[in-house]
TrEMBL record:
Keyword Metal-binding: yes
Metal-binding found in the keyword field: yes
InterPro entries (alphabetical): DUF34/NIF3, DUF34/NIF3_bac, DUF34/NIF3_sf, N-reg_PII/ATP_PRibTrfase_C
Pfam families the record matches: DUF34_NIF3
Name this protein carries in UniProt: GTP cyclohydrolase 1 type 2 homolog
Biological source species: Autumnicola edwardsiae
Family from the record: Belongs to the GTP cyclohydrolase I type 2/NIF3 family.
Origin superkingdom: Bacteria
TM helices/strands, residue ranges: none
Keywords: Metal-binding
Length: 364
């Protein structure tokens, strides 16, 4: 199996288009055409992780965080990033990072946190904008069903919990082929009227190339009339964070203690307790200060995240509890998610969970 075949499965699950613009995702080191001997799955790629990959005969490291985040101007081994990259190159080990592509995936990082907390009625906290496109095209009535289902198969027509969604209007189209045309219906030099179906169908923005290829392949006309527009609708199954509900209300102290235990957190830093019960919980793995207002607006009783600064805690404003469980602690189950997905997708290949603990923060 080539490394690129493994990557194809990863990107079917969490397309790189899902990643934030500031991020650095994808194959960061190595050649995708190389035959894979084994894949080590980790949260971070460090020198120790590369050593573990060497010892376990893995020439691919699948990492949540990218070891190369900003541009590298030199590779002389003067810091941990350069030393890690050099060692990987020396031993022909490829490094692939997924990061915010998986953060934004509905069944990704934040869904894992929500599951660990046994949250029900889970929804994306910050649904992504400008991620739904609409295709409008016109096709002869007799070809409409075939084209429509080809587009469904390509991934179009899914809205929330529904699929095979489209809107269809019958009408009469006209055209006159010139002498250079090769019309599927009608005659050169004569105006032709064809009973057509106007198909309107939505699709995720990252599938646009695939959807258009499917359209051209399955449409009978030489010249296909179509338009693609971006919808204002937010994608309810794509975006940052998640919010859900506990099975029953519990006290603030009980909730915080359970969070500390579930995530094996050395400490849970939190804002002022409000003397209320906890029912509605918002979560966001990693640095989540930017979503405090979203959690408040969603009516969360508590917001579980990481990397909150001193002044961030003031933003609770007695409306909810902010709970910082630590960056590593909030994302630690991500590698289990990747391992479970890939092991089921590719059953005859060696995927290995890294033993190296990459948490840089220690507690007394």
């Amino acid at each position: 199996m080539l490394i690129k075949e493994i990557i194809q499965h990863i990107e079917e699950f969490a397309p790189l288009n899902y990643a934030e613009d500031f991020d650095n995702v994808g194959l960061l080191v190595g050649d995708a055409e190389t035959e894979a001997t084994g894949a080590l799955i980790t949260l971070d790629t460090l020198e120790e992780v590369v050593d573990e990959a060497i010892a376990k005969n893995c020439n691919l490291i699948i990492s949540f965080h990218p070891i190369i985040f900003s541009g590298l101007k030199k590779l002389n081994g003067k810091n941990y990033v350069e030393r890690t990259v050099i060692k990987a190159i020396q031993h022909n080990i490829a490094i692939y990072a997924i990061h915010t592509a998986l953060d934004n995936q509905y069944k990704g990082v934040n869904d894992m946190i929500a599951k660990k907390l046994n949250l029900a009625n889970r929804k994306i906290l910050i649904p992504r904008k400008n991620s739904i496109k609409k295709l409008t095209t016109f096709v002869p009535n007799k070809n409409a069903e075939e084209l429509r289902f080809a587009l469904f198969e390509a991934g179009a027509g899914s809205i929330g919990n529904y699929d095979n969604c489209s809107f269809n209007v019958s009408g009469s189209g006209s055209f006159k082929p010139n002498d250079d045309a090769n019309p599927a219906v009608g005659q050169k030099g004569k105006i032709h009227f064809e009973e057509e179906t106007q198909i309107g169908i939505t699709f995720p923005a990252h599938l646009q190339s695939k959807i258009l290829q499917t359209l051209f392949k399955n449409h009978p006309y030489e010249e296909v009339a179509y338009e693609v527009t971006t919808l204002e609708n937010q994608h309810q199954h794509l975006g940052m964070g998640m919010i859900g509900e506990l099975e029953k209300e519990i006290s603030e102290e009980e909730f915080l203690k359970s969070v500390k235990e579930i995530f094996n957190a050395g400490i849970v830093r939190h804002s002022e307790l409000l003397g209320k019960t906890i029912k509605k919980v918002a979560v966001l793995g990693g640095s989540g200060s930017f979503a405090i207002e979203n959690a408040k607006h969603a009516g969360a009783d508590v917001y579980v995240t990481a990397d909150l600064k001193y002044h961030d805690f003031y933003k609770a404003e007695k409306q909810l509890i902010l709970a910082d469980i630590g960056h590593y602690e909030s994302e630690q189950f991500t590698k289990d998610l990747l391992y479970s997905f890939l092991s089921k997708k590719i059953r005859n290949f060696a995927f290995i969970l890294a033993d190296t603990n990459t948490n840089p923060i220690k507690y007394i």
